[in-house]
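My current task is to audit a protein record that another person submitted. My question to you is simply how this chain folds and whether the tokens agree. This is what I was given:
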Amino acid sequence: MPSPNLNHLQPLLQLYLQLGGGVLVGWVLGRSLPRWLPEWIAQFLFWIGVPISIIGFLRKADLSGTIWIAPIVAWVAILLGAGFAWLWLKAGWCWGKEALILSNPKSWNKATEGSFFLTSMVGNTGYLGFPVSLALVGEKYFGWALFYDMLGTVPGAYGLGVLLAARFGQGTEGYAPLFQAIAINPGLWSLGFGLVFRQVPLPSLVEQGLIGFAWSAIALSLILIGMRLSQLASWNKLRQAAMSLGIKMLLVPLVLGMVLLQFGMTGKPQLVMVLQMGMPPAFATLVLAEVFDLDRELAVTALAVGAIGLLLTLPILLVLFGV
């Protein structure tokens, strides 16, 4: 394990200011502006902002070496989170009654179990993971974060996530469109386009404008997170959320990060993947909870607490795996 260092202290503080400022602005706007506005912003980012950002950042990203490992690590992290969640559901009740912050999973219904699985395995590696990786590691290694998200998290959420949600949920209608969301995801198409045309020279003014737009989309995504958090009406089920977040944001990145070290994966590529593993639950978990009638309160609480908890878990991951 690398020795602890303070190399990331200044960029971490800058990141906190960026994250906190963007989310705070979004929170204030979300409390005062029409409730339909966040959905409009989300649609803009989904169809235009994020795809153009991917193309822009790809032009500066280093895609050499073993970048193909990133989606493999993403899938291992998803499956590991699901495995830890399964172990807790099977054995956690033995000591859950004595723990102060945990909840006895023996009394949970299927809907709660389904949301617990989803919030333990699928992270916000796009809207939140991208700005964190860019701020702490830089544009050169953005490709690792991008491959982790687009080829790991996205199909994991709308593939395995859908199957689990259908297994534990009450509704079985309407999940076909969620599968189709993978095929029509503009981020995946822009990934392919960006890979093909990343070496095509552009006028410097166009290049600068592309990067400027990309960073603006990242800032807008942080504002969107704040707006959505401001509209969350429930902070219940803290005990269940605490356990799922412990799995998703600490246990999985710590275990898998150490495994990567044992296989000789070090440096900034490893840090990018650990940071992506440590992201709080994705908004896709709430979407699936709504569609399949899972435990919405658990999904909402995990989203809100996870976004705040990231401020506490990031320094831990940087001390252990920072370079």
The radius of gyration is 19 Å.
